[in-house]
Task: structure prediction
Amino acid sequence: MKISVVGTGYVGLVTGVTLSDIGHTVTCIDIDNEKIQKMKKGISPIYEPGLDELMSKNIKNKRLYFTNDSSEGFREQEVIYIAVGTPEADNGSADLEFIEKVAIDIAKNLKKDAIVVTKSTVPVGTNEKIQELINLNKDSAIKVEVVSNPEFLKEGSAINDSFNGERIVVGSNSIRAAKVIEKINEPFNIPVFKTDIRSAEMIKYASNAFLATKISYINEVANICSRVGANVEDVSNGMGLDSRIGSEFLNAGIGYGGSCFPKDTKALIHLAGLHNNNFDLLREVVKVNNNQQSIIVDKLIDRLSSINGKKIAVLGLSFKPNTDDMRDAPSLKVIETLLKYNANVIAYDPIAINNAKKVLKHKVLFTESIEEAIDKSDATLILTEWNEVKNIDLKLFSKMNYPLVIDGRNCFDLEKMRYENIEYHSIGRPPIMQSSECIVVQ
Ligand SMILES: NC(=O)c1ccc[n+]([C@@H]2O[C@H](COP(=O)([O-])OP(=O)(O)OC[C@H]3O[C@@H](n4cnc5c(N)ncnc54)[C@H](O)[C@@H]3O)[C@@H](O)[C@H]2O)c1
Ligand SMILES: O=c1ccn([C@@H]2O[C@H](COP(=O)(O)OP(=O)(O)O[C@H]3O[C@H](CO)[C@@H](O)[C@H](O)[C@H]3O)[C@@H](O)[C@H]2O)c(=O)[nH]1
Result:
């Protein structure tokens, strides 16, 4: 089938590439011409494991095309996917500016009947608005049907998630349109869950909010574990054995970040508010998450008494491993606090460093290696659980002025840290201390 995908970000590009890989002819459209030129050469503008290879393969097979000309991208297509951003507006709602522009653009350029599929995460009622906008701006002889098809991929494993997802949600008020989208996805061999448009839109927000709730829940449990001398890792493992609870998304840490959970939880609270529901539970989830980053900085200050002028190494900047995405990364909040207390921050990340430089500019010194970052530092903070960080030779910590490691992602085995004489604090697990006295570094 001839498909176009509007927006070639973390979702749109992966959607376009995987749809082309299962046999469709896909044109990806973006207003960012620099991105388009790169992608035409088979270079992905984002870091996503496996994406470059799959892109090049399908460009070569003449199933994947890129353009910044929407009139070209919409002319011949039977199905048009929208995958542009829906960022957080000032009041917490989802900003629909990009979506609305695209809807009008599609309507004005269409030359034949089409199905418009919304992949972007949008509040309940948005697909109906999209339908209205298209109807108002299109040629009256052309028929357009709208389908909500929310995306559930995770950054860092997006290709794998697309081929091995647990469900494809198709929301439509047209049985015919829903069938076409089901057919398009058939080669993925993933169960399709069909529903009405509004329920499909809600499934996306309710799923993200539930996962965020799981994370804040285990983080709060971790905070209690620290006080009562329990180990949250054992607690979450023990809980996860109950299949009603499940073991996933029970990793305690410095909270969730990224381009989805922070904005989607707030957008759902906003949506609930519009319908006289305060969603107190989700408000608390957000509150717990907002406080979670301060735990490691408080511990650092507690142990060093002051971090003014101290060299603090930061390992990991992206909001999670295997991505270059810095949007709402918890590291940004941690670093902002370190800088407020006049610490000298030396940061390392294996992949996100270029994006981190754009946000943090010259406020932080960036290094090319873990070793360089921790050499003669007064403390090391671990903010992202990259494999490179988890597999570090623990002996390297002896290069620090004092081996104080504060781990926001519970990367290391407690006994190994004890064996290496490292003072080690993690989230919700007993500390490994050499002495209870405050550390004095020269
Ligand atoms: N990032 C994720 O992991 C993820 C997963 C599931 C759902 N989502 C949702 O998918 C949507 C897209 O997210 P993303 O992270 O891919 O966004 P993104 O910011 O990475 O990409 C959006 C792209 O759309 C392009 N664009 C904007 N306006 C355009 C226009 N008028 N015409 C053509 N292109 C245009 C931008 O240039 C950009 O390349 C959001 O609603 C998000 O909530 C994201
Ligand atoms: O047990 C856990 C799991 C995750 N996180 C954090 O939660 C955030 C989000 O992680 P993850 O969900 O793996 O990545 P995303 O790419 O943001 O994916 C989420 O957001 C996407 C956008 O809506 C959805 O499509 C996915 O299903 C949903 O998992 C990251 O900061 C993680 O560090 C934890 O702190 N503990």
Summary: Residues 47 and 324 are 6 Å apart (CA to CA). The chain is about 45% helix and 15% strand. The first strand starts at residue 2 and ends at 6. The pocket of nicotinamide-adenine-dinucleotide (ligand 1) is lined by residues 6-12, 29-32, 35, 83-86, 98, 101-102, 119-121, 151, 153, 155, 259-260 (CB under 6 Å).
